[in-house]
Amino acid sequence: MAAFGGEAGTFSEEAWARNAAAYETIRTMPFNAELAAGTLAPERFRHYIVQDAHYLIGFGRALSLAAAKAPDPDGIVLFSRAAQDAIVVERALHGGFFRDYGIGPDAFAATPLTPACDHYVAWLTATAYAEPFETVCAALLPCFWIYAEVGTDILARARPDNPYRAWIDTYAGEEFATAVAAMIAATDRAAEEASPTIRARMHRAFAHATRLEWLFWDSAYREAGWPL
After folding, report:
1. pLDDT tens digits for 145-182?
2. Helix/strand/coil (H, E, C) string of the chain?
3. Which residues of 218-227 are buried (b: 16+ CB within 10 A; e: fewer)?
4. 0.70 cut: is pTM over it?
5. Which letter, b or e, does each residue of 24-63 get, where b requires 16 or more Cβ atoms within 10 Å of its Cβ?
6. Inter-CA distances, 157 with 32, 129, 154, 165, 223, Å
């Protein structure tokens, strides 16, 4: 059971159990193993941080669409605040690394989304538009949950002078953990009244988003771009 999981028998517990092997692959993949060791090549992290900044714009839009579909005021507030944090709070983290790497606004804007980033953003946006609220929750949850789990895991084995300490501290931090717990709870509440058909769609969305999390980090490690 993951540290951030919901109660026994909930959608979140079931979804995490179904995707536990995928998470273990993500936790131990070269990008995260080398990030924890502090040996990840700066070029690979630079590639990642630029694409992540592009991704968060799309992620913020998808969260805003989830807020519009939320069935109650609390849900509207939760997802609206999450959209704001995705743009404002995490952009501040990226800003520090952008300064370190000499990446200005023009250079960022001129860098296209990679195939992995483009697919993830397009899929999330399409899901947020076309799917019911319950499925949208499940599609958005892995980005929160997996980052919290990876951040906590890396913090436990990272050396104190790790050059990526700001990234680690953000995703292993108490503030982010609180936000993740709220998203897990919201998804579980949405699943409580879901029909078996909708619940199955939720599981498919959660699994696909988990695969895309792996693809995003793997793409950054390979510094992958468009082949033509």
Report:
1. 999 999 999 999 998 899 999 999 999 999 999 999 99
2. CCCCCCCCCCHHHHHHHHCHHHHHHHHHCHHHHHHHHCCCCHHHHHHHHHHHHHHHHHHHHHHHHHHHHCCCHHHHHHHHHHHHHHHCHHHHHHHHHHHHHCCCHHHHHHCCCCHHHHHHHHHHHHHHHHCCHHHHHHHHHHHHHHHHHHHHHHHHHCCCCCCCHHHHHHHCCHHHHHHHHHHHHHHHHHHHCCCHHHHHHHHHHHHHHHHHHHHHHHHHHCCCCCCC
3. bbbbeebeee
4. yes
5. eebeebebbebbbeeebeeebbbbbbbbbbbbbebbbbbb
6. 11, 39, 5, 12, 25
What's the length of the chain? 228
Distances (CA, A) of 200 to 16, 138, 195, 197: 14, 11, 9, 5
Task: For residue 177, give Cα distances in angstroms to 96, 97, 144.
Answer: 21, 22, 9
pLDDT of res. 87: 86
Domains within the chain, CATH numbers bracketed: 11-221 (1.20.910.10)
Cα 99 versus chain centre, distance: 23
| pLDDT at position 1 over 50 | no
pLDDT value for 8: 61
What tokens does 102 get? 């000499």
